[in-house]
Amino acid sequence: MSVELIGKQNLLHKKSMRIFRICLCLTLCLLPLASFPQEQGSAISISTREEIKEEFSTVPCKNKERLQAVKALFEKVGATANDITIEKIKGVENILVKKAGATEEKIIVGAHYDLAGAGSCGAIDNWTGIVTLAHLYKTFKTIKTQKTIIFVGFGKEEEGLIGSRVMANQIKKEELKQYCAMVNIDSLGLTVPQVVTNLSDKKLAEATIKLAKKMELPMQTLTADGARADSVSFQERGIPAITLAALPSNWSQILHTSGDQVKAIKPESVYLGYRLALSLIAEINDNECGAYRK
Q: Read out DSSP for 172-239?
């Protein structure tokens, strides 16, 4: 998450972590995707907590290693070399994997792969987002969707949302209405899933809160005053967007510091973020493209 100014934040309720631990033991809080049609001969592949946890056994802690590590992760979850595109525009590299749908209507699912300095490994910010992004692709790649889903790893988010702005600005004005929503995943792994309200459109935020309630999944809202994230790049083009996170009230003391290390990650938090994002994308796919516009 790119931070320009640290402001006031919503404190998590004291009972959040207690509810969080209880929910991890429940399967009822997770919506199945069994109703989705599948590609012939394929089964829906919903990642497990163990598979999510395994992804953090090694994390690339240098910016120069990140892009190829993202590519390798997509390949690990089933993308072929032909499925993966690396777009280099104006000095930034975005990595894309497209899952074709029945229509040209589109959902963008994104997470930035670059990390900040100051001794940070970028494990939380934002390798957790990249792991979630790859596993979302793994699940959706064998599901027949109405909308085309574009999975994107953005470069140079920490330098001013450069990768996402390049992508958003490349969309032609006459094509903007085909972009139904953008779901951004930035910094999971520390607490319950959250909607970052000041980085999210109201209708998408409300839909996510309602969905989490239906899933019986504990969720909070976070206001990160002064923070910026890749959802903003798409909001600026009139595309509804949302940022999902999972951060405690003292997040500004962890991100962009030497405290952002693998050992700080709670894999269960990443897993719940993945499941919430999975159901949110499925819901966007089922609704009319303009459902989340102002």
A: -GGGGGGEEEEEEE---SSSS-EEEGGGS-HHHHHHHHHHHHHHT---EEE--TTEE-THHHHHTTT-
The DSSP annotation for the chain comes to -EES-----PPPPTTHHHHHHHHHT-STTS---TTS-B-TT----PPPHHHHHHTTSS---SHHHHHHHHHHHHHHTT--TTTEEEEEETTEEEEEEEE--SSS-EEEEEEE----STT---IIIIIHHHHHHHHHHHHHTTB--SSEEEEEEES-STTTSHHHHHHHHHS-GGGGGGEEEEEEE---SSSS-EEEGGGS-HHHHHHHHHHHHHHT---EEE--TTEE-THHHHHTTT--EEEEE---TTGGGTTTSTT-SGGG--HHHHHHHHHHHHHHHHHHHHS-GGGG--
Q: What is the mean pLDDT of residues 183-206?
A: 97
| C-alpha closest to that of 181 among 37, 32, 283, 74 | 283
- pLDDT tens digit sequence for 59-99: 999 999 999 999 999 999 999 999 999 999 989 999 999 99
More confident residue, 234 or 20: 234
Please tell me which residue, 30 or 264, carries the higher pLDDT value. 264
- Segment 251-267 mean pLDDT: 94
The pLDDT tens digits for 132-152 are 999 999 999 999 999 999 999
CA distances from 64 to 79, 113, 156, 228, 246 (A): 22, 11, 12, 23, 26
| Nearest Cα residue to 158 out of 197, 198, 187 | 187
